[in-house]
From TrEMBL:
Residues 5-131 form the Caspase family p20 domain. GO terms for molecular function: cysteine-type endopeptidase activity. Residues 180-242 form the Caspase family p10 domain. Belongs to the peptidase C14A family. One of its GO terms (biological process) is proteolysis. This is CASP3 protein.
Length: 243
């Protein structure tokens, strides 16, 4: 009897950023490389065939997702992107932006029929703005930061059979230090524990709780928080990490 195909995972981490003149544009993302390597190892143990890519340009990132359209896939496709970003975009190592909606659409059923029935799950570790989350009090009367009028357009552009989890809320920064990021460290903890057997929406809610209640910035940004969020267009409950 033939063995079932392995699910696939594409992990992209950018740590160094220069422009076309080789000038450094963004700060080095210390701590990012080690945590995605740990995540890649965990996904391998959970029966994923993992492709881990370091420091890719915007065009190279697009090409990597185009290549996935030609691959044989198992039950799920998982992708983790760790980079600098802003609302709706992540940056390649050449400091050029690429729209997340474009990445999602590359693997949509319209452009990639072979992946029509396969759940596609994205974890995005990147800033979505420049605001710092000071945490929320239940009786707070402070005005929330203004978001762009079309801040929900990215959500509406996520194709069916796709789930996306962001490290932070729209307009806010995502924290990273030499030990890693709040968001991907929480994902690591969940995948290493019994929570990995949960349905995806419950697993993501658990990550939300872990970051919101157990993580807090130190040093220059002492006391600042982070609130991940996710959106899903999946049509059924899925258990992608219950190997």
């Amino acid at each position: 009897m033939s063995q079932p195909r392995q699910s696939r995972a594409l992990v992209i981490v950018n740590t160094n950023f220069c422009n076309s003149n080789s000038d450094v544009v963004f700060g080095t993302r210390k701590g990012a490389k080690r945590e995605v390597e740990k995540l890649s190892n965990i996904l391998s143990r959970l029966n994923y065939k993992v492709k881990l890519m370091h420091n890719k340009t915007a065009k190279e990132i697009e090409d990597l997702y185009q290549q996935e359209r030609c691959c044989e896939h198992g039950e799920y496709f998982v992708s983790i992107i760790s980079s600098h970003g802003h609302e709706g975009v992540i940056f390649g190592c050449d400091s050029e932006p690429i729209k997340l909606t474009w990445i999602f659409q590359i693997l949509s059923s319209e452009k990639c029929p072979v992946l029509t029935k396969i759940p596609k799950i994205f974890f995005i570790q990147a800033c979505r703005g420049s605001e710092f989350d000071q945490g929320v009090e239940c009786d707070s009367g402070e005005r929330e930061p203004e978001c762009k009028p079309d801040c929900f357009s990215d959500y509406l552009s996520i194709p069916p059979q796709t789930a996306v989890m962001f490290a932070c809320s729209p307009g806010y920064v995502a924290f990273l230090n030499i030990f890693g990021s709040m968001f991907l460290q929480a994902l690591l903890k969940v995948l290493e524990g019994e929570e990995r057997h949960l349905a995806l929406n419950r697993l993501m809610t658990r990550i939300n709780w872990e970051v919101a209640f157990c993580c807090q910035a130190r040093g220059t940004y002492e006391g600042c928080k982070e609130m991940p969020c996710f959106v899903t267009n999946l049509l059924q409950e899925v258990f992608p990490f219950s190997a």
